[in-house]
Amino acid sequence: MSNVPSDLRYTADHEWARLEDGKIRMGITDYAQDALGDVVFVQLPEPGTRIELGGTFSEVESTKSVSDIYAPVTGTIVGVNTELADSPQRLNEDPYGVGWICVIEPADGDAYDTLLDAEAYSKLISD
Amino acid sequence: MADLKRSPLDAAHRSLGAKIVPFGGWDMPLAYPAGTLAEHRACREGAVAFDVSHLGTVRVEGAEAFGALQRAFTNDLQKIGPGRTQYTHLLEPGDGSVLDDIIVWWVNDERFDVMPNASNTARVLEALGVGRDVTGERAVIAVQGPAARERLEAVSSAAAAVKRRDVATVEWNGAELTVAGTGYTGEDGVELAVPADVALDLWSALVAAGIEPAGLGARDTLRLEAGLPLHGHELGPGITPLQAGLGWVVSWSKGEFRGREALAEEKSAGLRRVLRGLTVEGRQPPREGYDVVMEDRTVGRVTSGNFSPVLGRGIALALVEPAVAVGDAVQIDVRGRRVDAAVVALPFIPKKGI
């Protein structure tokens, strides 16, 4: 069973989001990392990049496939986990912790509330 | 996907928690919970067991066997004899491209076991015109790695003693195993064909002896590092043994074989592309189908690529124009981004076996 922490929000594309002082920290879910297998490379976004809800802005590559990362909200990248450049396996080891990908300054302060809650995401991945 | 075949070891994979994927018409383990990278390292440093039951076995027996194989395949069976194995190709007569790459186990005077790739078994059988498909009667387990023989010793010392490229029958718990000193990882090891009804017992004994289960994901990254071709990628429709750099598999001195004429024409006309190894700067894995670019001109295409756990960077095999040589600087077009790469000699890692 995949771990779906109850205090986070989710997208249907298997990203998680956490609200921190009005900003959103995000990564990929435990379900996503398990489906991908061993992550060997993360194409990190540049700080300052504007991203649009649902648009791709990063890529995660495992030994078996490439997976796009989609913006959970519209906003600007204000922080990037540069540790992933040399240690992409952190996405597998701790997807909700040291495996975070970036921090987004959302354009709309209410955007976070429109994301899936843990219950809805759990239902999505069990269907 | 209702008619995927299942290996005799299917229950063992599921109870070990393997991720199962369709491959060549079979349900096979991609990786166990340890994951592809850990399984890869276990094979380079210790010993692993792969279920390769999806490989076909066509058994050819009797007086016509030798002649039928010798006329069909590119390599010369007179270079070996009973108790030896040989890597060989079966070609399309029309263009000399590789219909399948095969290991022949010349088990004894009476018996050849021809081992095609999973999905090519029927075509190989048809091309030979003799033999029978015995794939369903057995499982095949590849035990590979520097500690393979030492750990296999505890299960069967006779199997552990089968030398590189030899093949022998060995008794184990009342059953007859056929054991070959072959593999597909670049490491030492053996492959064991075991009757289906005792396959689970053998698998359990191997795992109990400290030989770690490894899936098709690791098998692919291992063979790639070793520079070994995979049918459907480096070999297949339109790709000849000469393009793949496997001219040594073709015996011009033995007389007629399927596809000889077409291949001889290619040889005299010159190759239009050749297989090369590429390493990229950084970890990003090049993928099949990416263009190889040199001085802003497309000079070829990646046939297989991944991350090399040993080198810690992306590596690829690519079919490129013959002028692209070892030492050249090229670029790989990664979904619109150009990544620098170098043309390197194969294999990517030092060779310990084939």
TrEMBL record, chain A:
GO biological process, one term: glycine decarboxylation via glycine cleavage system
Start and end residues of each Lipoyl-binding domain: 23-105
Coiled-coil stretches: none
Gene3D superfamilies: 2.40.50.100
InterPro entries in alphabetical order: 2-oxoA_DH_lipoyl-BS (IPR003016), Biotin_lipoyl (IPR000089), GCV_H (IPR002930), GCV_H/Fam206 (IPR033753), GCV_H_sub (IPR017453), Single_hybrid_motif (IPR011053)
Keyword Manganese appears in the UniProt entry: no
Pfam families (alphabetical): GCV_H
GO cellular component: cytosol; glycine cleavage complex
Textual note on the cofactor: Binds 1 lipoyl cofactor covalently.
Cofactor requirements of the protein: (R)-lipoate
Keywords per UniProt: Lipoyl
Modified residues (N6-lipoyllysine): 64
Function: The glycine cleavage system catalyzes the degradation of glycine. The H protein shuttles the methylamine group of glycine from the P protein to the T protein.
Family, per entry: Belongs to the GcvH family.
Subunit composition and interactions: The glycine cleavage system is composed of four proteins: P, T, L and H.
NCBIfam families named among the record's database cross-references: gcvH, PRK01202.1
Protein name: Glycine cleavage system H protein
Gene behind the chain: gcvH
